[in-house]
Amino acid sequence: MQDDDELxxxxxxxxxxxxQFIRVQKPKRASQLSECFGAGTGCGWCRPFLRKLMxxxxxxxVNLPGPEDYSQxxxxxxxxxxx
Length: 83
Prior knowledge:
- Residues 61-83 are annotated as: Disordered.
- By secondary structure, this protein is mainly alpha-helical.
- It has one domain.
- The protein has three helices and two strands, in the order E-E-H-H-H.
- Strand 1 and strand 2 (13-14) form a beta hairpin.
């Protein structure tokens, strides 16, 4: 996943915005990432990825799935969540 790829697909929040928010705001809890344009408050798919970025000392170096895999996995998540 590149910096300008969307991490929160519900609210179109990019990885770059989340990393910058973490760097500047230094949230103490993962739930505080919702203050970054609502990230993580929609379907919930991105929450583990948001938490992973927050827990790392260098969030820029965290390896996340590419945008195609990410959106496909989210579609499966939402399909199973709604059943």
